[in-house]
């Protein structure tokens, strides 16, 4: 409940200090959920990795809001939005701080290291909330930051496209090598966050070059994929939890014949897997097609 309430507070906060307090409580609450089975050494190690990465991101966000507050004379978002054109060097520095700070939560490569550790350790329904919703707060943060920094130069969009392509390709390659079901799904989150970053990059490039239909398609595809990924990834993690509950096993090499024993789980997992693969006419296809 604390995690859910702080995620809700994040997206309605209109002040940098309130935003950071909610961000920190969200990180600590999710840490305790990841380490729910703390008697296991691998769970404790996963919790440590997650906590370190969460606070690396927070350190960059502290610097981001401190510089913005100095420039605006206030920590209110309204003051940030009315700043006007910042000096190009200042705006670019703020963009990079936001990209690292929020990207650590979103799971951009190479800041994704906590994802394949935390998801296998966390209870499956917690993984569904974290992957489906919590990592998207990083995407929300980047989009909010873009509204504060004025007209974007083209290289911001190029950087987002490169990060998106890298995260997408690395996520798929690592996912293919996995035997652990939940670790596989964690790497697919990295891939899909890469797709969202790619869409944001296309949107920023469209804005910087005055190609507004391109910008609309990029941002619309990215934000729609945020919603779509929450639907099918939540369903996949809940399906993985159902399999784990029934078999006490996460190693896919030791599984077989589950469709006969668990037809409902099998059918829902199949639908979600087809959606994450971008098979038309399911929702994953629609947002990826826009991008």
Task: Tell me about this structure.
The chain is mainly α and 291 residues long. 79% of the residues lie in helices and 0% in strands. It is built from 14 helices and no strands. α1 runs antiparallel to α2 (16-34) and α5 (88-106) packs antiparallel against α8 (136-148). The protein is globular and about 60 Å long. The model has no long low-confidence stretch (mean pLDDT 91).
Total strands: 0
Poorly predicted regions: none
Name the assembly state: single chain
Q: Roughly what fraction of the amino acids lie in strands?
A: under 5%
Major β-sheet, in short?
Answer: none
The span between the termini is: 34 Å
User: What is the N-to-C succession of helices and strands?
Assistant: HHHHHHHHHHHHHH
Global shape: globular
| Average pLDDT, all residues | 91
Structural class: mainly alpha
Total helical elements: 14
Helix content: over 70%
C-alpha-based Rg, rounded:
19 Å
